[in-house]
Amino acid sequence: MMRAMSQAPESLTDLPTWRAESGAPAPRRVVRADDTLSADSAYRLACEGTGLLWQGDFHNARQLLQALMRRAERKPRKASKTAEAPPTPAQHFHLHRQALGQRARTLAMVLVPLNGDYTIPLRRAPDLRQACTEAWGPATGEACMVSLRELLGLVGAHEWRKKGLEIPALGDAPNNRIHPHYGVFSPVRGEYLDLVANAPLPNKTLAFDIGVGTGVLSALLAKRGVQRIVATDLDPRALTCARENLKRLQRIDKVELVQADLFPEGQAPLVVCNPPWVPARPSSPIEHAVYDEGSRMLRGFLSGLRAHLSPQGEGWLILSDLAEHLGLRSREELLGWIAEGGLTVLGRHDIRPRHGKAADASDPLHAARSQEITSLWRLGSAA
Questions:
Q1: Which uninterrupted H or E stretch holds 114?
Q2: Is residue 324 part of a domain?
Q3: Are residues 186 and 125 in the same domain?
Q4: Low-confidence ranges of the chain (pLDDT < 50)
Q5: Same domain, 185 and 326
Q6: Which residues make Cβ contacts (< 8 Å) with residue 137, sequence separation at least 6?
Q7: The domain containing residue 373 runs over which residues?
Q8: Are 275 and 297 in contact (CB under 8 A)?
Q9: DSSP string, 305-365
Q10: pTM over 0.70, yes/no
């Protein structure tokens, strides 16, 4: 059992290198922490921004992190009856993200040391070398310290990569699994894949897949008979992930992977893009698949699509209207960007989400999620 420390812990000065995938700065103050530190004391220090470099039993560090999570999830006091008017949907969204960010920063204060070969110099520590290598590349020999929460995230990503995710639209098991890599968005929401699987193909000779990610859309287009696919992504992790998945699914012979910002060279009769759906600032690299600050990718796709469409070609834009229900983007804005790009709407296929949060009334964004519709917009060049 953890006991309260008799005095305030002293700051450490000779610290290993700080490592954070999110790019977050190292804690300004770091203290030694072990099994004698109480959860209440740890939570107070973490809320102050003090890093707790763990020196005790690894499993006790996990228990401490769980204790901090319980304290961070305590509901704030109710506002007084004289409080201001309730926030707008957009304000509510930003307040929700702000609260999540503060919670994440607090929980990130539990730190663990890593040796230069990714081993963990703590009692009962598991061997996480493979998970670290998959996420960060080969060990460099330099010791470091990392947030325990981030390290456990690496473990979760390793398990997803090993197990894979079954995608019914790709065919029968077991040859229908996508294995997402760390830092590459997992296609857990399958409804948009059903849209791509069922929309009528304008042509089967060539398609561009803009933002390939795990490679799931390229694999699906190849399964539908598209003869050649050029898939792009800026992130080297995504290109590596897509290549491995397409090889495993025996579709790599039909797909050319190109590192590019949006479009490859040339034109195609079908150009598919599934950009991030919410126009907000990402707080970490993995969030770039969810948040598109200023709708940069969406607007870039719409402004450049016409130049990359063959005559009578179609652009397929896969987009949720969640941002509209959150008050972050209007339908009029979207239609305006389509028109400004010299495009016209040829048709639209809609589907309601099937994920659990859509029906979870306790979700802070339930009012918007319960109305959400995902659409495949079929776009062509305007006359």
A1: strand 110-114
A2: yes
A3: no
A4: 1-6
A5: yes
A6: none
A7: 164-381
A8: yes
A9: TGGGEEEEEEEEEEEESHHHHTTSS-HHHHHHHHHHTTEEEEEEEEE---SGGGG-TTSTT
A10: yes
